[in-house]
Amino acid sequence: MRFRHPDGTAVHLAYCTNVHPAETLEGITAQLAAYAEPVRRAAGESVIGLGLWLPVDAAAALAADPGAVTRLRRELAARGLETVTLNGFPYKGFHAPVVKRAVYYPDWSEPARLDYTLNLARVLAGLLPDDAERGSVSTLPLAWRTAWSRTQRAAATRQLDKLAAGLRRIEAETGRTVRVAVEPEPGCVAETTAQAVEALKGVDHEWIGLCLDACHLAVAHEEPAAAVAELLTAGLQVVKVQASSALQAADPADPRVREALAAFAEPRFLHQTREAAPAGGALLGSDDLGPALAGALPGEAPWRIHYHVPLHEEPAPPLASTGPVLRDTLRALFGGDHAVTDHIEVETYTWSVLPEGSRPVGDAGLARGIAAELGWTARELTALGLTRTEPAPAAPVPVPPAPVLPAPVASAAQKEPGS
Asked: Is the whole-model pTM more than 0.70?
């Protein structure tokens, strides 16, 4: 789905396919028919955007085979789908029975993270529609915060320098621009906007900027307009925004609220929980919802939980979402005279772990839910003055007879998930 800001900027809206379980290239291709095309039909659109999630092995296979990239691009176009952004945060195993902290490995101190991200950028350069100005790849905010040594920080800085150089080479060799977006998240080295600004000092801001996740902003109790202003003052681009809402509990001491929250304490994903700061104090935090309910947080002030809930409907009372923060984020990015970014990715990956009774029924129910989220976001954008547009007709894409992209970097040895 495409929009035009009053300043003329073309704005792309997509949904993230990390909601769908697949680890192989064959599985990812099958998703297009099983999920993405039904989402497009449910949304009543001729074309919708996908924020593809390509696990490490699929990314490496595509980067090694430009013909496979071309075939994937043709498959996307044939089904009314297009891609300008990739989600490069999860490395692999995002639908394992237990993910939790494994999603933060390998971190940016490890060569495997660099190799993976450059492979994603090479693939995206071949998938971009002809009339797309650029591509974006989101990535983790350096690492989980614990055991982050000076040695690892220095290694990450070197890796990010190599990343910028690699992105520059890809542009020179393909004529397509791809930028990487570091995504602040609770519990990580860069949890807040201020921490992200500090972590990316000295990094080439032409190629590496920020992915603002509205759920994460809300959990950190940040004010979106102030966060965006801080990034722009620091010279950091908002490369991408993730349209997402967190779970919110106004009175976590209420037994009814705690009972409702307990249904969200599930074993697959990490649900970092933050309690509003007492007067003159600091924000209180727990690394997961279960420990928070077990007493890690006092429950004397409202909680916000890193649990992506559907954008278009509120959780059942007495819980709520941080939808107002998402609206404020979109307003800060698109409500002014100039668009601050041009890539929006709806990222509700938790549909399958929602409490019983809140989960969609079957693949058709999931397609309707994602389509409703896209519709909600589209209405918010038009309310901010953006207008709907359609992509230009695509020219036929020939399959290259020989590699035209740089050879992928072989994956380096990596830390096992959870190690």
From this structure: yes
